[in-house]
Description:
Elements: H1 2-20, E1 27-30, E2 40-41, E3 45-50, E4 59-64, E5 71-73, E6 89-98, E7 109-114, E8 117-122, E9 134-139, H2 149-156, E10 161-165, E11 175-184, H3 190-213
Antiparallel strand pairs: 1-11, 2-5, 3-4, 4-11, 5-10, 6-9, 6-11, 7-8, 7-10
Helix pairs in contact: 1-3
Keywords: Signal
InterPro entries: Ice-binding_C
Protein name: Ice-binding protein C-terminal domain-containing protein
Amino acid sequence: xxxxxxxxxxxxxxxxxxxxxxxxxxxxxxxxxxxxxxxxxxxxxxxxxxxxxxxxxxxxxxxxxxxxxxxxxxxxxxxxxxxxxxxxxxxxxxxxxxxxxxxxxxxxxxxxxxxxxxxxxxxxxxxxxxxxxxxxxxxxxxxxxxxxxxxxxxxxxxxxxxxxxxxxxxxxxxxxxxxxxxxxxxxxxxxxxxxxxxxxxxxxxxxxxxxxxx
Length: 214
């Protein structure tokens, strides 16, 4: 009788584990629906919050003001220990707000810094952005940033700065919109939760056998 009760108890615990374990990805994001959310600009651009026309809602707009490259820097909520986001994704939406000049290839370069060390990746295709919103995504791993597993892990352990190149055309002529900048972790596989449950069952079974020997 005790064995039956114990098994039922273990089954209940496993069911609870599977029901309450976090299966949703962690995420940090800026939607720019209420403002610029503490994003900052380089000396080559001016920032403005545009309350409508985003993807959806409001968006961040950066306008070119000189011949230097313009980029934006992420606020504090995207910095620090980002180890949980290793193998996750970094993404943002962008579009060309104004300007009809020649496209600038470095548009879409994302750089992650840990002090004086950095890794970069160009996550936008040639001839981006267009006049329509498009989403650009990269995996936060060694392959995505063309580096070593040790290097990307070291950077993510203490991110001190994230920059996104929004210079999209050659010359001082353009304005670029950005929306929905997001970091997302990997969603846990259901199999990993089942393995956790199986381990719990095994541990309970061993403990029960030991108790029965006494």
